[in-house]
Specification:
- The chain is mostly helical and 140 residues long.
- It has helices spanning 2-15, 31-44, 46-49, 84-93, 111-122, 127-135.
- α4 (84-93) crosses α5.
- The radius of gyration is 19 Å and the shape is globular.
Length: 140
């Protein structure tokens, strides 16, 4: 049995194939993405959205200029209404094109970094919110 295992493992190494990291149970992302995303979030997003994606006080009340403060990204606000491609676009280009104030991070974060940031804040979403996001076509 040991020889068979050695042959299989050796064959995987020679072919360049290896088992990839499994996703977090029921989610699209891996724990490594969440871990990477946490630091990227702290470095780029926490100043406005809070260290654990909790948003600002009165995030749902318009400011004097009619704009809204940064919302929670932890599942308590509307981020879960947007599909993954929309979340990626929002991080990449920001909210200015849609009348918001959030800057884009496409010049600072790679596509993989953006996915990691999203995986971090989605890891804060309770299971029912994540399931509702999936049911709305979140992965489309």
């Amino acid at each position: 049995m040991k020889n068979l295992l050695a042959i299989i493992c050796g064959g995987m190494l020679l072919s360049g194939c290896s088992e990839s990291e499994p996703t977090v149970e029921g989610r699209w992302y891996t724990q490594t993405q969440v871990n990477t995303g946490q630091q990227l979030f702290l470095d780029n997003c926490a100043e406005c959205h809070g260290a654990v994606a909790q948003g600002t006080n009165n995030w749902n009340k318009p400011e004097p200029d009619g704009s809204y403060p940064p919302p929670p990204l932890n599942g308590r606000a509307h981020a879960w209404h947007h599909p993954l491609k929309g979340l990626k676009r929002s991080v990449k280009v920001g909210g200015v094109p849609m009348g918001g104030k959030m800057p884009g991070f496409g010049d600072k974060l790679s596509d993989a970094d953006i996915e990691a940031v999203i995986s971090y804040f989605q890891s804060k979403w309770p299971a029912p919110i994540y399931q509702a996001w999936l049911d709305r076509g979140g992965l489309k």
